[in-house]
Amino acid sequence: MVAWLLTHVFDVKVPDYHHARAHATDVRVLVPRTYHADGMLLFCDPVDRPLLAVVLEIQRGWDSGKRRTWKLYVAQLEAEVDVDAALLVYCPDPRTARRYRGLFEFDGLSLSLRPLVFTPGDVPLVVEVAVARANPALAVLSAICHGADAGVEATFPALMEALRSVGPRRAILYYDVVLAGLPVAARARWEAFMTTSVGHEYRSELLRELAAQHEELGETRGEARAVLTVLEGRGVAVPAEVRERVLACTDLAQLDTWLRRAGNATTVDDVIDG
């Protein structure tokens, strides 16, 4: 995916590499202080010698301090692996991207840096099945970058075929990435599409557990609010400390008991201590 972006969006010549591997993202200096990039990647030859290094950053907001720290990331990585390093920056907001591009137009006497800043507009909307199968990572990135667009659903059939082309284990990983990257409305449409089209759950065990926890948390919050609403409707005064106790409760059985008691309560003690 990084190679595609460098080549097709920024016209950077990527060496004829054998494989790519993740690199540790901690950048240590002698102060001592550790700076942490969002990602670092090495393109390597068959014997794992680095040919090209890439620092990966995601910037959702403005931070003028990046003018210094980004240079540190690149300089340290180049010194460590002894190859050129590119700085690849994703900005979801085009206005933020323009500000970062402008930040490095005039670097004065300091170390010159050319960040390769891209936005969702630089990533094509992948709707062709053949393209998605040939580059599944691009299909995933396309869906995420265009998740807020009205036409994002046009990517779903191709994205589904991309998942089918990579095998079960990687398909689950990619599916989780798509779920994490899509806005809520698009995520719901994507899940509905996959349920209808595939008929089975791609989601990983971790995401299923998180979803179950979220659903249970939502249920307990609703039950807690119901207890307070019933008491309010009956004109029962609820002290602040009791309200906090009810809202903080995550035991559905306890909340159900309180709710049944609230229907006949004349005081808050009838509910909590009854």
Q: Based on the structure, what is the oligomeric state of the protein chains?
A: single chain
Q: Which ranges are low-confidence, i.e. pLDDT below 50, for 5 or more consecutive residues? A: none
CATH class of the largest domain: Alpha Beta
Percent range of helical residues: 40-55%
SS field, number of helical segments: 12
As for the number of domains, it is: 3
- Characterize the main sheet: 5 strands, mixed
State the distance separating the first and last CA atoms: 62 Å
How many whole angstroms does the radius of gyration measure? Answer: 26 Å
Tell me the overall shape: elongated
Strand order of the largest sheet: 1-4-5-6-7
N-to-C SSE string, H for helix and E for strand:
HEEEEEHEHEHHHHHHHHH
Task: Give a quick summary of the entry.
This protein is an alpha/beta fold. Helices cover 51% and strands 14% of the residues. Strand 5, helix 2 and strand 6 form a beta-alpha-beta unit.
Plain-language structure description:
This protein has three domains: 2-122, Trna Endonuclease, Chain: A, domain 1, CATH 3.40.1350; 129-203, no CATH class; 207-272. Helix 5 (136-145) runs antiparallel to helix 6 (156-165). It has twelve helices and seven strands. Helix content is 51%, strand content 14%. The longest helix is centred in the C-terminal third of the chain and has 29 residues, at 205-233. The termini are far apart. The chain has 274 residues and is an alpha/beta fold. The mean pLDDT is 86. It has a five-stranded mixed sheet, sandwiched between helices. The protein has helices at residues 2-9, 66-81, 94-103, 129-134, 136-145, 156-165, 168-181, 184-197, 205-233, 240-248, 252-262, 269-272; strands spanning 19-23, 26-29, 33-36, 39-44, 50-58, 85-90, 116-118.
